[in-house]
Each structure stands twice: as structure tokens, then as C-alpha cells.
Amino acid sequence: MSRSNLLPIETRVANQVEKCFSSTTDPLFVVGVSGGPDSMALLHILHNIDVRAVVVHVNYQKRGEASDKDQELVEQLSLEWGFDCQTIRLDPDAAEGQNFQQWARRQRYEIFYDLMHEEEADAIITAHHQDDQIETVLQKLFRGAGIESWRGMQVWDPPLFRPLLTTTRKEIDDFVEERAVPFRTDRSNLESDFARNLLRNEWLSKLSDFFPGWRQNVLRIPEQAEVFSEALSFIEVQLTDDHDRLDLQTFSQLQPSLQKAVVLYLLKERDPGITVSTGALDQLDNLADLQTGQSIQLTEQFSLLKDRNYLKLVFEHVDSFSAIELEKNELVDRPFMYNGLIFAIEEFDNPDFDQTLYLDLDTLQWPISLRRWRAGDAFQPFGMEGHQKVADHLTNRKISAAQKDRAMVLESFEETIYAVIFPPLEKLTPPGTISELVKCDDHTSDSLVITWKR
């Protein structure tokens, strides 16, 4: 299709392709297409601007016949518009005991990456748009992510390419209508069971009545985060020597909050997806007491070592374990199982405290996460008035060094630790310690139950 016949949204995508891949002759892309309006609009645009692409559709078989019809539509229109299409069918039972949304996303992107390497493609294209960006930034804000995480998504974040990121959902809907692009609606997206759906279906639609212009205000947040990130980059250059060490004297002159921001920036440079607890960063407050050769454990893999007048990040390879997010509605449907642990929601009736942990369901802030404990983690153990470091608690409970390394914590999205999980010390002991904040009492009706499969 000639440029003169393109609609503005098509011209915008064409310009993004030219800008981001100007040095590549006739680039080839892998494009993920679900069959919904966003991805079908994107596929039609790629067809109209003559972009080479291999379509990949993932059928999770979660919605029975509806899922098969999604697949049929994507395959038919890919053929009609001149694209090769590969469909991957997954067994939803493989996600048993896991957060399905997280599992599906992980599977989807693994497929995308594998296909990109197989086809020797230049990038993976997704149909994320401006409304997705707004929802992403808001979720980060609500979950307490630091300012450096507010940047949201980028149009070109190799190998991911998001040419619709500056396009609104309304523009996409208008395009679909004008070009008569076929699509299918996933009705599960109309339900507010997940955080993003709740924002999209019930909350964001009402904001304009109360806060005119709020969308543009949110979209400016990533710009502010980018400025903050550039400032941290500048500070890093001033602090770092040729051996990638931080000058301790200069670093110590920074405000404590800025020290933590710089260290977090350095960690994310090395591992963009890393998660660092507030407690771990708070250890920097005791930096003056650190002796040469001693270190602060920031995460499972990174520590900050004092080397005379310098500080250096040290990486250590350990057994990898990604935090697992649990949603209340999913645990109501079925228990979650991981490595011998069972998490379930049950009525608080005839509790077996000798072998099971019980957390009052009404005290929990969802979603909750299961992750390895980190240095600096602290919680209020059941029966105690004050807080205790998780490391000290494990030592007091006589957990062996090997078991201590594999101990986990269950926490809220606000990083409040609800329980410390570790293997039972004897046959008839519970798998850890709950926090005083979530204990069950005479008023408890339902509880989160944690036990070992025996």
C-alpha cells in the first residue's frame, strides 16, 4: 500500500520501523498475535506497510472452543495477509499450583525468543499501546516500586519492539472499525479478577470525570523517571574508578536515600529484573561500621564489599529461584504447590498447629509473593512484640546452613513479611513461623494454610 493511502496510525508504525531499524535492510520480525483487537490491528498494519514477519499464536486451551476460534482466526488471516504462522498449543494443567497469568506470560515470551533465534529475526513485535503503558506505570506506583522503575516500557527495548506504544486504545479501536479488521474478544479480560483488569474495567474509566488530563500526567512520569536515572548515571561516573569500584569517602557524603538509589541503580545495570528489599538497602545505614573485607548481602547473588577505601559489587552464582506471585482468587479455586509446600485457602476449623501454618485471610494484602529471604529482611515473629531479622530467626531456630540458604519468606506487595518458610525441624513441626500480624484468633473465619506434602 502506498504511503499516501496510509492512515495516521499506519504511518506512525512505519516511521517507528524506519527509525529503529534504519541500519537493517528488510528486517524480519516475530510478532505475537492473540486474536484480540490490538494484535490484529498490528498485524493488519504490518501487512499494509509491507513488513516481513512470522506470526506466532499461543493457544493456552484455557477457554475451550473460544480458544480454538481465536487460533483459527489468526491462522486464516495470517495466510490471507501473506504471513507464515506458527501456533503453539499449551496444556493449562501445566500451570497447576502457579499464578496462571505469570505462567502464561513466561511461556509466551520463551516461545517468542526461541522463534526469533530459530528464524534469525531482528526483533519481537508486541501490540502494547499507550493505555498498557499507563496501566503498567500505575501498577508499579501502587506496588511501591522505586522511581527508577517508573520508566515503564520503551518502544525499542531490544529485542522487544512496541511500535504502538504511543497509540491509544481508542485510536486502535477506530482503526479496527475503519479498516474492518476482524478480531475476537477474550471475555476473561472483561472480568476484574486480576489487577490490570480491575484498573482497566472499573477504575481508569472513571478518572477523567474527577481528574481531567490525568492520562498525560501519568505519561509524564516515565520522563521524570528517565531524568532521575540519568542523574544517577552521572553520579555513578563521578564515584567509580577504573576498576569499577565506588570511592567510599565520596559515596559516604551522599544523603542516605541517594546512597541507596545509587546502589540500586548499579544492581539494575547488572540485572534489570532484579528485586531488592527495602531492608537490604537499609543496611547501608551501617556502612561506617563495615570493616575492610566485610560485605553487605544485598540479594542472593550480589553483595557490597568494602575494599579499603572503596566499595565493590560482588556477584556470586547461587541456586536461582524467581519470586512467585500468588493471587487470592486463584488459591480459592485450587491449592498452589511448590517443592513440597502446599498453599491453600480453607475455613479455620479444627486447626493442626503442630504441622501447619495458619494465616488469617482477612489480614493479608494481595497479591502475596513467595521468594528467597534476603539479608536485611525482618519480621515480627508470632508471640513477639518487636521485629527480628530473618537471619537471626533462622539461627535461633537452629536451621542448618544448607537449609538456611533455601529458606523463603511470604510477603505482601508492600514488602510486609507474613511468614518465614523453612523445612520442618522434626516430623511433627510446622514448615516455618508466621508473623504476629497475621495470627488467627476467635474471629478468624478463613485462613491461608501452609503445610508440607507428607
Can you put this structure into words, describing what you see?
This protein is α+β, with helices and mostly antiparallel strands and 454 residues long. The chain has 14 helices and 21 strands. The strands form five sheets. The chain has a six-stranded mixed β-sheet, with helices on both faces. The chain has a five-stranded antiparallel β-sheet with strand order 11-15-18-19-20.
Short description:
This protein has 454 residues and is an alpha+beta fold.
Helix content, binned percent: 25-40%
Cα separation of the termini: 64 Å
Low-confidence segments, given as residue ranges, are: none
- Strand arrangement in the largest pleated sheet: 3-2-1-4-6-5
Helix/sheet category: alpha+beta
- Rg from Cα: 25 Å
- The average pLDDT value, as a whole number, equals 87
How many H/I helical runs? 14
> Quick one: overall form?
globular
Per DSSP E runs of 2 or more residues, the count of β-strands stands at 21
Strand content: 15-25%
Q: Biggest sheet, in brief?
A: 6 strands, mixed
Give descriptors for this structure.
single chain, 454 residues, alpha+beta, six-stranded mixed β-sheet, five-stranded antiparallel β-sheet, 14 helices, 21 strands, 37% helix
Topology readout:
Blueprint lengths: L7 H13 L7 E5 L4 H12 L3 E8 L5 H16 L3 E6 L10 H20 L3 E3 L4 H13 L13 E2 L2 E2 L7 H11 L15 H16 L3 H26 L6 E2 H5 L3 H15 L7 H5 L12 E3 L4 E6 L2 E6 L8 E3 L1 H6 L2 E3 L2 E7 L9 E4 L7 E5 L5 E2 L8 E2 H7 L4 H5 L2 E5 L4 E5 L10 E3 L11 E7 L2
Parallel strand pairs: 1-2, 1-4, 2-3, 4-6
Antiparallel strand pairs: 5-6, 7-10, 8-9, 9-10, 11-15, 12-13, 13-21, 14-21, 15-18, 16-17, 18-19, 19-20
Helix pairs in contact: 2-6, 5-8, 8-10
